[in-house]
Amino acid sequence: MLDALIVGAGPSGSYLGHLLSEKGFNVKILEEHREVGRPVECTGLVSERVFKMAHSRSKVNSVSGANVFFPNGKSIHIAKGEKTIVMDRDQFDKDVAAMAISSGSDFSIHSKAIAAKVGEDAATVTYREDGEKKEIKASMVIGADGINSVVRKDLFSTRPGRIISCYQVDSAAELEDQDSVNVYVGSDSSSGFFGWATPSGKLTRIGVGSYHSPAYRYFLKINERFGKDKIVGINGGSIPVKYLKRTYGDRALLVGDAAGIVKPLSGGGIYTGMVSSVHAAKAIESAFDAENFSAKHLSAYQKAWKHELGRELWFDGMIHRLFGGISDRKFNALYDVLATPESIDIINGTGDIDYPSRVVISLFLKRPRLVSRMLFTR
Ligand SMILES: Cc1cc2nc3c(=O)[nH]c(=O)nc-3n(C[C@H](O)[C@H](O)[C@H](O)COP(=O)(O)OP(=O)(O)OC[C@H]3O[C@@H](n4cnc5c(N)ncnc54)[C@H](O)[C@@H]3O)c2cc1C
Predict the structure, then answer these.
(1) Mutate to test the pocket of ligand 1, among 35, 42, 85, 216 (most ligand atoms within 8 A of CB)
(2) Mean pLDDT of all residues in the chain?
(3) By CB atoms within 10 Å of each CB, which of 116, 278, 302, 303 scores lowest?
């Protein structure tokens, strides 16, 4: 019998496979698609921290700043010393999968999990490999199967609480400023989230996330700047921005998007997913040491990832909801406070892509006018 069966070969699943195989566990990873990394549903912006965890040759650019465009047509430029990496997400997923395989994980592509159950002695997953129905048993099953997780549906009977739907294209339109991401806020650009244009080597990734209504209509507006005839690829996807109340069960854990362990403010989930995998690997090792695969014993997993990320995700979620419904007038009033050297200094000093709430909290504390604008502008 396998020690651990991981469903899903995204960054969270493959990284967990790598960590467990390195510790000597007998691991298998199922991936539903014929090719790891495809289809791409990501902008590929990550911090250096991610590249410290994964050895990858997928970097295509790096940026040190952002131009934030407000409804009044004006923008502010923010920048920090540390670079944010823009990567080729397809290549990144393949590189992390290669890490898992070279550490000893067994890999099955074109293998779609269709059902999961947990018994006294084992977890059982039914899957289709190249169309053929198969069953496999393992001491532990881990759902790393993203937003529509089968493991979550069958073993946790729950769904992500809040979902951002996205529409994104690869465009041949070149951004003048190759060192900054463009961010678009306001009612023309999104409903409850934001739009973006990211310089990604020869291409620009232009996209929109939206909470309340379809992202496509906002995308059309943003893309007027760049041109329909420059689009060379369309992708999209959805982002779960509220983590589950329980991410562990008897013989089962959920990591990454399957558990909703994603930053609600930015929608970034690669770093947080991989961090959840670090804690999952430790919890699984402890379960084997204690020969105890009960939910009670595995609850240490949730305590550990929450200890590292919970505060950030909680603040992020709160700020995401606070900014989600604000009017254009309010955004423009915020612009007036933010477009000052003092505010820009605060943003540049505290900005961190993995901990985005820090900059908002610093601004609220050091620029009280921001609070009054939030409260008193309609
Ligand atoms: C448009 C868009 C832009 C984004 N941009 C960024 C960004 O710039 N930076 C960032 O950090 N995050 C970004 N994200 C979020 C990021 O893509 C996810 O948080 C991240 O992919 C989560 O990794 P994961 O391994 O948990 O899940 P996933 O990457 O979703 O991987 C799940 C894997 O499981 C497989 N799978 C699913 N179901 C089954 C099944 N039944 N059987 C077998 N295999 C299965 C899937 O094929 C997939 O390979 C973006 C998301 C979107 C939609």
Answers:
(1) 42
(2) 95
(3) 303
Query: What residues contact residue 170 under an 8 Å CB cut-off, 6+ apart?
Result: 200, 203, 204, 205, 231, 232, 233, 235
Does 134 reside within a domain? yes
Average pLDDT over residues 314-343: 91
Instruction: Tell me, yes or no, whether 24 and 131 share the same domain.
Output: yes
Rounded Cα–Cα distance for residues 353 and 347 (Å): 12
Give me the pLDDT at residue 297, please: 98
Q: Report the interhelical angle of 295-324 vs 357-366 (nearest 10°).
A: 50
- Does the Cβ of 47 fall within 6 Å of ligand 1? no
Assess whether the C-beta atom of 112 lies below 6 angstroms from ligand 1.
Answer: yes
Number of domains the chain is built from: 2
Is 98 inside any structural domain? yes
Element (H, E) at 365: helix 357-366
Residue 277 sits in the same domain as residue 371: no
Question: How many angstroms separate the alpha carbon of residue 94 from the centre of ligand 1?
Answer: 13
Q: What is the pLDDT of residue 370?
A: 78
Domain that holds residue 304: 1-44+88-162+241-322
Domain end point (choices 322, 343, 358): 322
303 and 328 housed in the same domain: no
Report whether residue 241 contacts ligand 1, using a CB cutoff of 6 Å: no
Does 377 score more than 80 pLDDT?
A: no
Neighbours of 28 (CB within 10 A): 19
Q: Please tell me the residue having the least CA distance from ligand 1 atom 12.
A: 268
Q: Per residue in 357-367, pLDDT tens?
A: 899 889 888 88
Q: Give the atom of ligand 1 at the shortest distance from the alpha carbon of 44.
A: 8
Q: Which two tokens stand for residue 25?
A: 């566990």
Per-residue confidence (pLDDT) for residue 195, from 0 to 100: 97
Separation CA 299–CA 280 (nearest Å):
10
Q: Which atom of ligand 1 is nearest to the CA of 147?
A: 30
Question: Domain boundary at 300, 322, 344, which?
Answer: 322
pLDDT exceeds 80 at position 313: yes
Q: Which atom of ligand 1 is nearest to the CA of 235?
A: 1
